[in-house]
Structure to design on (313 residues):
């Protein structure tokens, strides 16, 4: 990301992210899918998980960031933790569970869009007690961000609810991202809103916002969700992003992407970078601009955390 958040202000913050850690197996499909046969593809495994990615981008912006999550007692878990530590994320409250580390197979189509096959694995071991211990024991706590996957999954929902509740008790600001439209439909938008309404920031893409609000147009989505949240940010893929502040003012930014390698993790890069900027005191327009650059870096590279830019042969 070019032009990071002001180091002194960011470093003074303490942010805790609660949610998932995954291994992303990226399958770049290079020919029409041949059922029951072979399809030429390019395959790579990279660190992932929405919450883990967001924590990394917060840390890259200079924010002191801790992650509350669970990984397996396996080689994938070791690699996931090592990658987080290398980025400066505090993993003291990442539990080692007796389940395999979560894995997602992302099928990346020629236009860069992806479909995901997910095994939540060790993520299902994240519980409310772990979240409470991490948040109540923190010497300082400025902000708590909860990945929507944590709330959309019945097994981990108590951990997400406890994180938001404890943050409120400690007078920390709170944010949540919707994460995925399909599980949101299954849970029901009203039930999701009941858990997260009142948070300072909500992040969604347009489809997620449409499901959550019952509206279609981006501005209508922002207006409807603005009733329940202090600030709403809605990403629009190749059309950039829009945000609505607490006073109802609308802001927008164009997409910074010129070429699409794959879109895995673009929203996470956007969310983490935007949060870092806003929590450090930057305005909405500046935060949107920084976040668009981060998302473009992800979209133009392989993997969710900008693992080297590459071009398609």
């Amino acid at each position: 990301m070019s032009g990071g958040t002001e180091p002194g202000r960011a470093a003074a913050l303490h942010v805790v992210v609660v949610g998932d850690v995954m291994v992303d197996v990226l399958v770049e499909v290079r020919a029409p899918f041949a059922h029951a046969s072979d399809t030429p593809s390019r395959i790579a495994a990279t660190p992932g998980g929405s919450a883990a990615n967001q924590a990394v981008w917060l840390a890259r912006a200079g924010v002191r960031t801790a992650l509350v999550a669970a990984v397996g007692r396996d080689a994938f878990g070791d690699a996931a933790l090592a990658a987080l530590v290398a980025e400066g994320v505090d993993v003291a409250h990442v539990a080692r569970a007796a389940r395999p580390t979560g894995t997602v197979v992302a099928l990346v189509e020629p236009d860069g869009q992806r479909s995901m096959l997910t095994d939540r694995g060790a993520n299902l071991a994240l519980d409310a007690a772990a979240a409470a211990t991490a948040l109540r024991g923190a010497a300082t706590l400025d902000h708590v961000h909860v990945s929507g996957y944590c709330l959309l999954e019945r097994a981990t929902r108590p951990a997400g609810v406890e994180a938001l509740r404890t943050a409120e008790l400690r007078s920390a600001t709170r944010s949540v991202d919707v994460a995925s439209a399909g599980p949101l439909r299954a849970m029901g938008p009203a039930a999701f809103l009941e858990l997260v309404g009142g948070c300072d920031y909500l992040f969604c893409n347009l489809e997620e916002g449409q499901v959550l609000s019952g509206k279609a147009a981006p501005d209508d989505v922002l207006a409807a969700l603005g009733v329940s949240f202090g600030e709403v940010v809605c990403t629009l893929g190749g059309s950039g992003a829009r945000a609505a502040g607490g006073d109802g003012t609308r802001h927008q930014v164009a997409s910074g992407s010129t070429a699409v390698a794959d879109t895995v993790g673009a929203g996470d890069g956007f969310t983490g970078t935007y949060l870092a900027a806003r929590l450090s005191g930057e305005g909405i327009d500046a935060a949107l601009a920084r976040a668009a650059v981060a998302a473009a870096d992800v979209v133009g590279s392989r993997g969710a955390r900008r693992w080297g830019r590459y071009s398609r042969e």
Notes: Residues 284-299 form the longest helix (16 residues). The longest strand covers residues 64-72. The chain has one domain: 7-32+42-299.
